[in-house]
């Protein structure tokens, strides 16, 4: 992903422990898959949750939605595509697609996270260092 890209993609194989008795990914694991995509999106932009927290910013999820279209199963090779929805303010929003090896969409989702000042425990504006990286 280039410095200015608003979309990123990661790929991995579903592990056995992520599935239920039927061999299908347990529904609660999709939030973790979205987090993996979001974390790598931030990392490729030059940030990490660790660095943000060290600078006094937390980024909790305040909204999560998931739309299951097709099952994801043990040992499937999947991609999580993470896309920034719009320019961050006090919130940052991402859309997600989980795709199989044939690029068929299996799951879609969305998260909204809030920038929180750790010391004040109050919402705050998106840090300038993130906005600077997103300039076109």
Key features of this structure:
single chain, 136 residues, alpha+beta, Thiol Ester Dehydrase, Chain A, 5-stranded antiparallel β-sheet, 3-stranded antiparallel β-sheet, 3 helices, 8 strands
- CATH H-tier superfamily: Hotdog Thioesterase
CA-based shape:
elongated
Largest sheet: 5 strands, antiparallel
Helix/strand-derived class?
alpha+beta
- The secondary-structure element order is EHHEEEEEEEH
Q: Figure out the total of helices.
A: 3
**Cα radius of gyration in angstroms:** 16 Å
Percentage of residues in DSSP E strands: 35-45%
Q: How many separate domains?
A: 1
Report the count of strand segments.
Answer: 8
Quaternary structure: single chain
Strand order of the largest sheet: 1-4-5-6-3
Q: Detail the poorly predicted runs.
A: none
Remind me, CATH topology? Thiol Ester Dehydrase, Chain A
Return the CATH class: Alpha Beta
Mean pLDDT score: 93
Helix-residue proportion = 10-25%
Span between N and C termini?
A: 14 Å
CATH architectural type: Roll
